[in-house]
Specification:
The structure is a homodimer. Chain A has about 240 residues and is mainly α. Chain A contains 11 helices and no strands.
């Protein structure tokens, strides 16, 4: 395996371990030692990729946020918005990294983290899609893409928290559909609205589509996780401690 | 002061102290000792009212949830829904007890708490109002009051969390308006919709109205906090430890 591939895989292993520890213990109680033990890597390898617990938390939140951008481009931009939401619902039910990222962003005890960044990255992605949708004439004239993006991101964050607290995500499909059917008719022109596919199956199909695209391009890492900002220096230490 | 009044005031003092400790430290890290120190009451007085840290957390969440039901009845039930939302926005900005209750409900590290109950109490209140609104013909025919109540409660929980994380609630008025304008046109008949007052000032006015009603009925406790389930036995210990 090339050195760069190995570094990417190690970084991914560390992030998966950090996600699991943050999800289980919360940001405040989690320690670097817990994460080292779970990841089974050396301290040197961890500090090659991440400088601190805070840095690890941002890594997990970024990995979760980045998933958003991975819906393949759609001709209809409001379908791309819908697919982004449905994909997140599918991933929250299936992927511990996504759950951990969302929980960190919602963890009001993680006072040293700038949790706003995670919300804002999501909103930025949604704003871009809704701005394109507006330019294509898909949106009702009164819609401000930034406000609508903020609403969708915030409201989604809340319904997933409520679903997690009450049913551990088993009713998240239904809550997601309710969110979409209560908001989209106020956002999208009716002729476009009637063409959209809002079924939860669409989340799973989009997930499969992304996995197939990743396999076809032979990217390393199971979620397309790319190497971090230290990536120019790809020789990570193997025995340091 | 009558014994019962004193007991109600002591219970309120303890809840305010618990709210402040939970808000500052999070559920997991908070201790009974912290709460005793902040409240300045004896251990005996605390255990007269609350059996455990868990019980204190439920007390804070219930005090927050109960605020919801205190909007005076409105002839137009959808205005009562709107007033409940706007009142919560006003209180989140002003009242530490409300903030603490909401944070406990959203605290995913508070694993021993049944946090779903707090969401469900809110949903139950909203469902009642929306069912009345439906009976009065205010809602569009396709609306299921339970689903719509769940959506409003969950979405609101999310926008307040996002507002807290990004601006510490300074933009919560704007986010609340955006939530209402994106959802209400899909819920309420247009002729009713046009009569509604959605301005943030309505939250403050409702708050003042409630305070005036409380002062007129001479209820003890600054937020109308009623005595707990032990209230039949109103002689709390003064010197126990």
């Amino acid at each position: 395996m090339a050195k760069q591939d190995r570094a990417i895989r190690t970084r991914h292993t560390i992030l998966v371990a950090a996600a699991s520890v943050f999800e289980e213990r919360g940001y405040q109680a989690a320690t670097i030692t817990d994460i080292l033990t779970t990841a089974g890597v050396t301290k040197g390898a961890l500090y090659f990729h991440f400088q601190s617990k805070e840095d690890l938390a941002y890594g997990v939140m970024a990995a979760q946020g980045r998933h958003m951008g991975t819906v393949p481009p759609r001709t209809c931009k409001t379908q791309e918005v819908v697919d982004t939401v449905l994909l997140q619902t599918y991933r929250l039910q299936k992927d511990p990294m996504v759950r951990a990222g969302v929980r960190l962003a919602m963890d009001q005890q993680a006072t040293e983290l700038d949790r706003g960044t995670s919300f804002q990255e999501w909103s930025h992605g949604m704003t871009t899609l809704l701005t394109q949708a507006k330019q294509q004439g898909e949106l009702l004239p009164h819609i401000n893409p930034t406000d609508t993006a903020d609403l969708l991101v915030g409201a989604y964050a809340g319904i997933q928290a409520m679903s997690q607290a009450i049913t551990n995500y088993t009713d998240l499909d239904h809550r997601t559909t309710t969110l979409l059917t209560h908001t989209l008719p106020n956002i999208i022109h009716p002729p476009i609205l009637t063409t959209l596919n809002l079924t939860p199956q669409r989340g799973k199909d989009t997930y499969t589509e992304i996995q197939n695209n990743l396999n076809n391009t032979n990217e390393p890492g199971t979620d397309g996780e790319s190497i971090n900002r230290n990536s120019n220096n790809i020789s990570e230490p193997q025995t340091a401690n």
